[in-house]
Amino acid sequence: MKKYINLFLICLMVAAPAMASDINPMFGQGNKNGIAIYAAQGTGPGTLFKMVDPFLWEFEPMTFAMLQYSQPIDIFRLPSRMNFNVMQNFGYGHDRGLSFFAVGVSWDVALVNWRGFYIGLGLGPYMRDSRDRYVTSRLVFGERVFIGKNLGNDWHLEIFTQHFSNGDFTDINRGFNFTGLAISYNF
Length: 187
What we know:
Layout: H1 2-15, E1 34-42, E2 62-75, E3 78-91, E4 100-114, E5 117-128, E6 139-150, E7 155-165, E8 176-186
Antiparallel strand pairs: 1-2, 1-8, 2-3, 3-4, 4-5, 5-6, 6-7, 7-8
């Protein structure tokens, strides 16, 4: 874990001069709205730290699809976005009971912006329509780590990993981890 933190800090120091741009890298020049579609594969239950270590992933019979509407904002002078999310998790096979629908809000911050690439973190609460054996509360928190690439001024592609859990508010909190792709159109 220490090597990941060191690598992240080195990337941040190298890219820090590129952060001075007035253009939000997640939106492009002059865009004030964004629509994104996310698709992800389940990478197993577990802690928040499991989501960023691919060697710990256990691919599970779960996928999710999410539609996101975003607007650009600044958080501590860093380019950010405020999101409204609607998602559906599909559990299949023996994990069919893990399916849920959720609605939430989230905030993403681009920490690194370099030559059309950006790296960021996100956080937000989500309300689910059911409880299950992984998390016994309807309220969950979603944490996201993403790497994005500008495909032009209006289109962006992201690779992300996301974790959902309830912060140990209930006794059962195994959490959900996902990894996938997102494409966004900004206007």
